[in-house]
Structures are given as structure tokens and as C-alpha cells.
Amino acid sequence: MSQPPISRFPVPDLAALPDDIRARIDAVQEKAGFIPNVFLTLAHRPDEFRAFFAYHDALMLKDGNLSQGEREMIVVATSSANQCLYCVVAHGALVRIYEKQPLLADQVAVNYLKADLTERQKAILAYAMKVCERSHEVCDEDYATLRRYGLNDEDIWDIASITAFFGMSNRIANAISMRPNDEFFLMGRMPRIR
Amino acid sequence: MSQPPISRFPVPDLAALPDDIRARIDAVQEKAGFIPNVFLTLAHRPDEFRAFFAYHDALMLKDGNLSQGEREMIVVATSSANQCLYCVVAHGALVRIYEKQPLLADQVAVNYLKADLTERQKAILAYAMKVCERSHEVCDEDYATLRRYGLNDEDIWDIASITAFFGMSNRIANAISMRPNDEFFLMGRMPRIR
Amino acid sequence: MSQPPISRFPVPDLAALPDDIRARIDAVQEKAGFIPNVFLTLAHRPDEFRAFFAYHDALMLKDGNLSQGEREMIVVATSSANQCLYCVVAHGALVRIYEKQPLLADQVAVNYLKADLTERQKAILAYAMKVCERSHEVCDEDYATLRRYGLNDEDIWDIASITAFFGMSNRIANAISMRPNDEFFLMGRMPRIR
Amino acid sequence: MSQPPISRFPVPDLAALPDDIRARIDAVQEKAGFIPNVFLTLAHRPDEFRAFFAYHDALMLKDGNLSQGEREMIVVATSSANQCLYCVVAHGALVRIYEKQPLLADQVAVNYLKADLTERQKAILAYAMKVCERSHEVCDEDYATLRRYGLNDEDIWDIASITAFFGMSNRIANAISMRPNDEFFLMGRMPRIR
Amino acid sequence: MSQPPISRFPVPDLAALPDDIRARIDAVQEKAGFIPNVFLTLAHRPDEFRAFFAYHDALMLKDGNLSQGEREMIVVATSSANQCLYCVVAHGALVRIYEKQPLLADQVAVNYLKADLTERQKAILAYAMKVCERSHEVCDEDYATLRRYGLNDEDIWDIASITAFFGMSNRIANAISMRPNDEFFLMGRMPRIR
Amino acid sequence: MSQPPISRFPVPDLAALPDDIRARIDAVQEKAGFIPNVFLTLAHRPDEFRAFFAYHDALMLKDGNLSQGEREMIVVATSSANQCLYCVVAHGALVRIYEKQPLLADQVAVNYLKADLTERQKAILAYAMKVCERSHEVCDEDYATLRRYGLNDEDIWDIASITAFFGMSNRIANAISMRPNDEFFLMGRMPRIR
């Protein structure tokens, strides 16, 4: 079977992209060794591209009590609930790399309740799943539970916003049939020999 | 009963906000006559505020075959499915104003299938609901159906992205208990005397 | 768009109705200033009309610890869960009028958990939603919870029966495409100037 | 295990009931040989009792293209979906008796799609299940389908209203823990020797 | 209506079956007085027949704190949740016979929460329903709850495995349209005169 | 975090196992290079172990129009729907190996509709998902659809039974917290260098 396209929509020629977008893509390519398809497919809409990655960076690169690996776990759990192939695969790679734990991403994707996580991390994902699936029921008790695990209100905002942002990303990726790069599937699976 | 706060989080003092954010808030206040709470509550996180409204403008103020009123209908239907009080009420007001139709927002919020809409508009909302609730099932047939109503692929991207973006907005608003301004409830309900 | 009919079924001529039904309709018209469509559409079936309104009056006009406004809140929450346009709009008007609270009906329709309600009222609606969506799970604990809020068993019967009766009404209205009168949408929204 | 009460609420003394209610109960006892518990338990609320049975008779004893057995099948399918023990058992007995078919009620209660029914009867129950579970989606196509089986619009009203009425009955019975009479379980199971 | 076949697949001639399978069928026929259709329909696949009944016997004929009647209750509750006509009817007969309780099977099939069961039995069925519908959420607390009712871990394995095995049986029976024998419907309904 | 046990239940000592079970385990260890935990954990119940693997072999090692890789795809899709970590991971490895396709298992686990599959394979998985989630709705049309893809009735039995059998396996694995061997996660991910 020949490989299907990475998007239902046209993928712009790198050379034709606005400078700021091309610079961002060049930077990620240098770091990762390849261009993740989310950059190529969203570049079809430059203004949305800029807002998307500005939002992404504001949530994923900020300080707080959530580690980078924990932020990526939220993405994997949310994306699995929304059945988004791109995000489960791409952010699963990031979970493996940040956590230096080659099994964790698959565990979280299938059932975080059976994953090798701390109770604090399971509470984080339980709240993320509530925001993902029935955010209208979020209540004081949810905040109280997370505070008991040493998280503060800013962390709780982070969990909700990461869940909400990737819920958006999942729906867009599903709607345009965004395909994950083959490279992601294997990344971080052999941490000891990296 | 005394009125509850507009957010679980601190609402920043306008004077203390970065200039660009204050300028945006001043502009909306001048146009609307009041400051919608989404501006005040999201200003707690300036970087996320900027990305949020950049994304919003990219999707809601762009050209295409969807009218402004139709874009807002998508927001109301999505926000009702996600039970987000802020967005149903605030964007319901916009539906009434843009469409000059005082009954439409409530109809769409309860059951768009019984609303005074064209078949084309019902097809738009049917696709939005699919993206909202089971985006992993989006398929070629969905695109074909919408094309039969004169929509092109860019319009279909718009529908999916508006649905996805406000799905994010709904989850954040629910998680922080964002309260709609009282003004929204009555806006656009008496179009003849406006 | 021309306005669709108020029912999929023939709407009887007032003059041709049995005397008791016409008297009931005359009375409501005198009080409300217009004839709510539920009277006109159900008059297609006189025996069912009589039983329907007898049941309605037995539940909604009786004494007890539930105020008229609280009885109507139950109707709005139930009708929103069942996505019944007629009942959300018509009984939303009654919530606004009885409670002299112009925002409350929309709040309850979208998400009663975020509405300006007392804890006792939220407990009433939580029980109504359980009867609406999974009545087979009603148990002793539900009764105990409501008693803690000062409700007695007769009040609990009332909540369940109002929820059940309007669940019936919702299904009939949806099946026959009963359209709410335009008048309801605006009623009670400006209580101070009434 | 001693047998639990037939209702969470007081069951009135027959002698203390209003004359019209006692007359109705006497009549059913004479015909059935016992008093079905729905009469005793609802008599706790005389006005609701009267409205309930007036509505019941208007729907179940009327003319039309639905046989009595078919009306009772709708009740069994609806009551099974709502997990109402009283109505599945009591109306299952009526299905067996009217249809002179001792297996049919259990088949319909578990899965009407595998029951010994005609295609017309399956279409009736499919529409009833739609009204029961997602009445807001009822559309022209549902009416067209039923008309193809020789049903007219009055019959379609009957199906919807029977489904809706017993959806009410199911919720009340579940909420008050109405217990079916032991007699119902065996009625109509041996039709040949009746 | 002529009676439909007992399976979508060919039912093998008894004489043509392997000796061990025919011996098993002869034995059940001698005991029951008829051949339950599950034996005839699964004999279409001899290897699967052997594994199926070996598994069945390992779970249903073993020792432990669950009585035979309680094992069969689990089957009825699971099969009702999966809407499997064959298993609800056939194992309902076994519940009646083992428990010498003619009403119990119908009660459990409709709503075990309203059945004449002990609290211990309701806890068993609550766990079975969790394994049936959301086994990924099984947790330590489930084990702790059942231990409080005097069940040990081997009993808890039994409950889960019976639920899981009959969940398999339900799906196969539904997929091949396995029809229950008429005899099952009446068995055990008149225990006093047996 | 220290690694949790592979089961909530005791794992028997290999030396203490019955000869036939130990022989089966020795054989799989020789072939795979390690002992998959399903063998060790189910050996706690020898009779169930024997029936389980006899059933497994009857379904997975038989002839027919479904390839070994396709049988394993059904397992992965079913196990993902049931959120069973053991089966998604272990049978995902088998999909990669049989299909010589390192990306396919993750694709099927997240959303088979977006996986690199033929239309015939998607039809197989669509039927498996129907058997998994709503087997009571299986109908003639399902058989007709699969026949159009060149599958015969015996293949359709195979799909249903594999789905049903692994639905059982998923529930047992979830209930006893069966942990997948670390080895499975990486197997078949680099097919070219195997």
C-alpha cells in the first residue's frame, strides 16, 4: 500500500512560506532531525499556525510544578480519549524521551490507570480526563483533590488548558487526516542506548 | 444570592496589564459598551490571552463562504454540546445580532435540528457536531456532503477549526468557572427597535 | 425563511373544540395574552389534552416545599437534557417570571451546576437529572440527601413526577415538532421594568 | 428474605379512597382477579391517579392500526430500555395474553431485533426506541418509513405518545420502587391451557 | 409466523458429530429432557465447542463461596446488559431452578438493583457489571468492597471470569442469532409444584 | 518506581505446574525467548488455562480467508476499545511481526479508520467493533457487507469469535491487572534489521 498524504489539504512549499514560519520550521528540523508534520500541515493557514504554536509554547514551555514529561502525558491521555493518531504517536515519543521511560507512553495511551505512574500523576490525568470528557462538571472538589497532591491553582489551570488545547489539536488533526511522521513511532523506545 | 465571581482565578487590574492587552480590551469595551469577561479572565495569563485572541480572529474574522452569523452558530451549537454557559450566552448574543434573528440562538442551543435554518446550515452544524463529539470518524463522505451544499474545502477547514477552537474555549471556561456578563443575555433580542 | 408550522399535525379550529377545552384555552389566553402552542397542538387529541393538563395541574399547582419557580426549574433542566425546544423556551419564561430573575433560565438550560442557585436547589436538580437519565439507579441515599435539605418524601415524589411528566411532554413535543410561540423568548427578561 | 413493600410511599386503605378511584380499582380487580400494584401505589395521589389512568386509557384503548398487543409491545420495549421492573413484568403479561404468544414478551424485553415480529412491528419498535432515547432527532424520514408499512400519522402519534407516557410511568415506578405483583410473572405463559 | 432457525449457520447432524461431542450432548439431553440450542449451534465448530464447554465447566461447576444460583445470576445480569436473548432466557431458567425462586431471574434481567437479593449478592452483581462495562477501571477498592462481604480473592476471580466468559458467549450468540429453546421460558416458574 | 507485579494473584512456580501446562510454557518460551505473562498469570487456574489456550488456538491458528496478521489486528482493535493494556501491547507486537509493518499496530490501537489498511480490512474491523460494542444489533446487512469483500460465513464467524474471545481476555486481564512483558513493547518495530 502506498503511503497516504500527510493531510487532506495542500502542504505548502517551504520556500513559499512567510519568513517567521520558515524560521520556526527550520529550528524544529535542526533539533529533531526531521520536520514534524504538524508544522507542514498547519502552515497551510499561516495565521492559525502562528496562534497555534504561540499557544502551544505558552502552555508547554512554561514553569510550574508539572514537569515537561507530565505535560506530555496529559497530551497522550487526552489524544487517546479523542482517538487522534497524530498526537498519540508524536507526543508519545516526547513522553518516552522526557521521562526516559520507553514503556510509559503506550501504557498511558491504553489505560493510564494501569500505567507506571505516581498517585499524584494519576490524579493529574484523572482531572485531565474530566476536563476532556465532562468539563461542565468540574467543581471545587476537583481543585481540592489536586491541591492535596501539592499542586497549586496555576498548575490546575495548566492541566485544564493543556487538555483543552490538545483537544482542539486532536479535532483539527482528525478532521484534516494529519498523518504522524514515521520517525515518531520508534523515538525514545531504547533510552539506554541513545 | 450575591453574584459569584467571574472566575476561580484572580482577575487582573486593567492598569497593570501589558499595553497590547489593555489596548485590545479598550477597543472591545468601546465597541460593545462593556468588557466581556473572557477578556478579563484570560488576561490572568497574558501569553495565552494573546494566542487565544489571535487564533479567534484568524478563524472568526476571515473571508469565506461562511457568514459571521454562521460562524457564531457553530460556536453556539458546540458550546451547548459542551455545556459551556459563557460561550452559549455570549455567542448566542452574537448570533442574534449578526443574523438579526432574535429567536435563533436559543433554538440552536437547544436543538439545531428544530431551528429556523436552511438545509445548508443544518449540514454545517451536523459536521460541527461530528467534529465536536467524534472527530475520529470524520471521513471523505463528510467532505462530499458539504461540497454538495456549495462549501469548499477551506470552508470545511473553517467549520472544523471553529468547532475545535471553541471546544478548547468551552473546557477552559468550564474549568475556571468563567461567568458571562449579564449584558449578553438580553443583547439582540429586540432587533426591530435596535 | 417563512415560519414553519407549530406542529406536524393538524391544529384544530378553536370554534370546533369541545367546550371544556375551549374554556381552558380562553382562560390561558386571557391570562397570558396569547395561546401557548401546547394548547393548540394537543387539542388535536381532546382526551389526551384533558389528561395532560389535569396531570400538569396536579403536579405544578399543588402545595409543598417546592416553589413554583423551583418546579419550573426542574422542567427547564429536564427539557434541556431531552433537547425539547418548546419546553426549554416556554418554561424558561416561567422560571424568569416566578423567580424574578432574568438570567436564571438560560443558566439552568446550559448547565445548572453553574447557575445562581442554592445548594438545596442544586440537590433538587441533581435528583431530577438522575430520574431523567437513570431512574433505575434511584436509591435510599437519594432520598436521604434530599431530606437533609429539608425536603420531605412528598416533595421527592413531586420532583420525580415533574421530571417524568415533562420527560413525556418533551418526547411528544419533539415527535410532533411542536414550535414555541415567539412571545416566550422575551418574557421575563426585563423584570425591573415589568 | 421477606418480601419488600410495593412502594416507598404509604399505600392507602381501599376503604378510605374517593369513590371514583375505588370503583376503578374494584373493576380491575374483578377483571384480573387481583389488584395490580400500580393502582394501589398511585392512589396515594388521587389527582395524579385520575390523570394517569385517563391518559392511559386514551392511548391504550383507542382505535387505530396498532393492535392492543402491539401497543403493549411498545410498553415492554420502552420499559426495558428504562429498566423499569414493574412495567416490563406487568405489560409483558399483557403482551403474552393479547398476542397469545407466550415467548414474545421476554424476547422483546431482551432484544426486540431478535424477537418473533413482523418487519412492520420491528419498524414500530425502532421508532419507539428513537422517541425513548433520542426524540430530538425525530425527522421526516421517520414518518416516511412508518408510512411505508401502512401506518398513518395518527398511528405515529400513538407510538410516540405511548412511548412517552410509559417513559413517565417507568420513571415514577423506579423512583417510588413500585413492585410488580407476583401474579404477573406467570400470566399468559401457557396459552394453550388457558 | 413460522419459527426462525436456531442459528445463522448450519446445525450439524448429531450422528455426524465426533464421539466426545455427541456424548456430551447425549448427557445434557438425558438430564434436561431436551438439547439446549447452544450445544447444537456451537457443534458447528468442534474445537471451539470443546474449549467453550471446558471453560464453562471450569467456571460454573467449581467450588467456592458463590453458589450455583449466584453464578447464574451473574450470567443473567451480564447477558441482559449485552442484550443476549439466548443467555438471558436459558440462564434465567437456571436461576429459577437453583434458587427455587420463580421471580428472581426476571427481576435480575430488568434491574438487579430492584431484585430480591441480599446486599452481598448486589455487591457481586455490581462488580460483575463493572467488569462487563468498564473493566479498565477495576481497582483495589473493588476487591476491598467484596472482601467486606466475606468473599475471597478466588471468588472475585470467579465473578470476573464468569462475567467475561458469558460476555464472550453473548457476543457469539448475538452474532450467529442463536435462538433459545422454547422450553427454557417456562422452566422453574412453578417451583412449588415441581 | 519499582515495577509492579504481573498479576493481583499468585503466580505459580513453574516446577509446580502440571506437565501439560509446563510443556506449553516451555514451548512458547523456546519460540519467543521469554514467557509471555498471560501464560504465567492464567496458570494460577490450570483448568481455565487449558480451556483458554485451546480456544485461542482454535480461533487463531485455523485456516480461512483471514491472515494471521488480520486476526491479530482484530485483537488489537478490540483490546483498545476495552482498554486492555496487556492485549494491546502483546498483540500489537504480533501485528507488527506478521504484517512486517512496524507502524500498523499503533495506528490500529488509536483509530483503525486512519490506519494503513485496505477497505476489506477496515470492513473486518468495523464488524469486529460492532460485535465488541453492540453485538445485539448484528444483522443480515453486516453479513452482506462482508461477503461483498470476498469473506465467507466461516470468516464472519471467525471475526465475531475472535472479537468475543479477546473481549473475555481483556476483561480478565483488566480484572487481575495482568502486566505485559517489557519485551513486547519493542518487538517488530525494526523489521528490516530482524
UniProtKB/TrEMBL annotation, chains A, B, C, D, E, F:
Protein name as it appears in the record: Alkylhydroperoxidase
Source species of the chain: Pandoraea oxalativorans
Pfam families on file: CMD
Domain of life: Bacteria
One annotated GO molecular function: peroxiredoxin activity
Entries under InterPro entries matching the protein: AhpD-like, AhpD_core, CMD-like, Uncharacterised_peroxidase-rel
Residue span(s) of domain Carboxymuconolactone decarboxylase-like: 46-93
